[in-house]
Design brief:
Strand order of the largest sheet: 4-3-5-6-7-8-9-10
Number of strands: 15
Oligomer: single chain
CATH class of the largest domain: Alpha Beta
CATH superfamily of the largest domain: Fructose-1,6-Bisphosphatase, subunit A, domain 1
CATH topology of the largest domain: Fructose-1,6-Bisphosphatase, Chain A, domain 1
Strand content: 15-25%
Bound molecules: D-MYO-inositol-1-phosphate, calcium ion
Mean pLDDT: 94
Structural class: alpha+beta
Number of domains: 2
Length: about 270
């Protein structure tokens, strides 16, 4: 199994690097191709599609028997989803469209529904994050570990806001404000994949978000777990990959963040911390 995982990891790496090279080529040259997919702000560009094309070509060549769930093309390949690749050819499209350097290719493998392989490639900074179940997590081939911050008031968190944020009060605004009071800060990078990679390498201590998809989080989940962190649902129950909600931390602050998420104070108490 380990040898098979290594082979899969190498194929995913080849695909992520190829997708990333396409993104770098398109950076700053996509203005005419930016289209809203449905909700305001939910963009797709020629770069998302071109990156996806080269990634899918690599999977078709090496692993034609595997199933694929890719953001722009949906479900492809084998109906038997024992091996399911969750692919985001450009995570951070809004950043990319503005030439804000926080975007990545994210490629994760679910085996029987469990994340087992993750590759996240940030082509702007040429940083490559890789992980496989039982084989550890690396950044640029060097082992990485989560931070050991154990107090919430000494921690730095990161989160994001889904594209339906204007349509629901469950839009993460209250959580964002709450944790901004309780921590040293909350960042919003605009790339869920990088958020998870940054938890894995200790640049932030925890990440939570709602409204995200399997292609946003599969690679990052195994990355954080293999780096020694913990990934669950908000209430600390086992994570459901299609639930849209994720809590990933260094482990030390996990219980505290989970409890705070489950017991948000009423808005009227803000400012009285
Ligand atoms: C988005 C990013 C963002 C997150 C959104 C995602 P996209 O992915 O990961 O950080 O807050 O919920 O949809 O659309 O840029 O691939
Ligand atoms: Ca995404
Ligand atoms: Ca995307």
């Amino acid at each position: 199994m380990k040898e098979q995982l290594k082979t899969f990891l190498d194929i995913a790496t080849e695909a992520a690097l190829a997708g990333g090279a396409v993104l770098q080529d398109y950076l700053g040259k996509i203005e005419d191709s930016i289209v809203e997919k449905g909700r305001p702000g939910d963009l797709v560009t020629a770069a998302d599609k071109a990156s996806e094309e080269v990634i899918l070509e690599i999977f078709n060549r090496h692993l034609p028997e595997h199933a694929i769930l890719s953001e722009e093309s949906g479900e492809l390949g084998n109906q038997n989803k024992k091996f399911l690749w969750a692919i985001d050819p450009l995570d951070g499209t809004t950043n990319f469209a503005h030439q804000y350097p926080a975007f990545a290719v994210s490629i994760g493998l679910l085996i029987d529904g469990i994340p087992q392989i993750g590759v996240i490639y940030d082509p702007f900074h040429n940083e490559l994050f890789r992980a496989a179940a039982g084989l550890g997590a690396t950044r640029d081939r060097h082992p990485i570990q989560v931070s050991n911050t154990s107090e919430l008031n000494k921690s730095l968190l990161v989160t994001g806001f889904a594209y339906d944020r204007r349509e629901t009060t469950d839009n993460n605004y209250a959580e964002f404000c709450h944790f901004t009071h309780l921590t040293q800060g909350v960042r919003r990078s605009g790339s869920a994949a990088l958020d998870l990679a940054y938890v894995a390498c200790g640049r932030v201590d925890g990440y939570w978000e709602r409204g995200i998809a399997p292609w946003d989080m599969t690679a990052g989940i195994i990355m954080v777990r293999e780096a020694g962190g913990r990934v669950t649902a908000y209430d600390d129950s086992p994570l459901e990959i299609y639930s849209g909600r994720i809590l990933a931390t260094n482990g030390c602050i996990h219980d505290t963040v989970s409890k705070e998420l489950m017991n948000l104070p009423p808005l009227s108490t803000w400012g009285q911390y």
